[in-house]
Amino acid sequence: MGSALLAIDVGNTHTLAGVYQGDILLHEWRISTERSATADELAADHDQILRLRGGSLDELDAMIVSSVVPTLTNGYRQLALKYLDHPAIVVGPGIRTGMSLAIDNPIELGADRLVNSVAAYRRYGGPCIVVDLGTATTLDVVSEAGVYLGGVIAPGMETSLDALTTRAARLVKVDLIPPERVIGRSTVESMRSGLVLGTVAMIDGLCHQIRDELSGAVTVIATGGLAGMVAKLSTQIDHIDPMLTLDGLRVIYAMNAGTAAPSGAVEEAT
Description:
Blueprint: E1 5-10, E2 14-21, E3 24-32, H1 39-52, E4 62-67, H2 70-84, E5 89-90, E6 100-101, H3 111-124, E7 128-133, E8 136-142, E9 147-155, H4 157-167, H5 187-214, E10 219-223, H6 227-233, E11 239-240, H7 244-257, E12 267-268
Parallel strand pairs: 1-4, 4-5, 6-9, 7-10, 10-11
Antiparallel strand pairs: 1-2, 2-3, 7-8, 8-9, 11-12
């Protein structure tokens, strides 16, 4: 495989992984985040998937991790030492990102949000807003000069659905797909309207308010598993970039390894 980088983004629900050779994404995959997984179990999961793609952990030369699950941060550190024979770069204090943080307590900022912001600014310039549709729906704002300004955190669609079905006995799980109309004629339609169209309305409304605060044009980028669906319904999202987090990890690895990290291609929202 040659010189290869394993990029890992550990989220609360899913873990996104990818292998880069230079700036080329060779493989990407997603697994469920298991908070109690050991380093050996993590290695087995990723190695098995790589072997299905014709590779293996043995062929990887470097590893970078962003994680919002502290127990797994340590697990991936151990994985790198045990199976890759060198330490992983873990996004956090002391890691060069090229981005200043204009927030009250920088240590509170989730690694994934910082990685997304770095990648978005590198690809699109500023000012920009990154909308990440995951366990939480987050909006992160970067200035024209590339300063991280802060953002918004709200429950994600799946998180909201879980809360509804757990606390309301007569509500059932539904597929998160756009309804045909806003006014639902059944419980399922009504839930889809609230969850899907409600999320889109929230995102569009917040982007409009952020534009007002910044007093100018802003580029809006959507990422995360539900980004494609939401972007098609949104009036504010300009680009869909499903691999934004992985590419941000590649960029940050390159900064810390002392090598160049050119930008990649993106998919336009339609």
